[in-house]
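If your schedule permits, I should be very grateful for your opinion on a structural question. Kindly check, if you would, that the fold set down in the tokens agrees with what the sequence suggests. Thank you for your consideration; the sequence and its tokens are set out here:
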Amino acid sequence: MLEQAIFNEITGDATLAAKIEDSGIYHCYPLFVPQGVLPNRAITYTEIDQSLVYPLLRTSLFQFNCLAESFADAIDLADDLDRIFNDIREVSLGGVQAVKYIKFQGRSTLYNAEANLHQVVVEFLFKY
């Protein structure tokens, strides 16, 4: 359910959605961009860690990969994710999931020469 909430939040933000939308398809995917799909900008996300904090509270660490043909576009996507998710408290994420807080954990940059894509990796911790 948290994954659906994340998707809803990303595609529900008009600024970010416009950057990853092409012909009515949002290039926002769990895990990886499907084979054969070649968008000029996309976001993938995956849960890389989860722990039980209290009997009814969990934390999930999510990694977001902002992929783009240019470094500036990849940074731009990462900045939008930061604007949407960083330091959010007591929110109904994507209209689906109650979240206690979301906190920025880190960012790194990569380049995939084989795919000719710039990648900015952003991590956020969700407590829900």
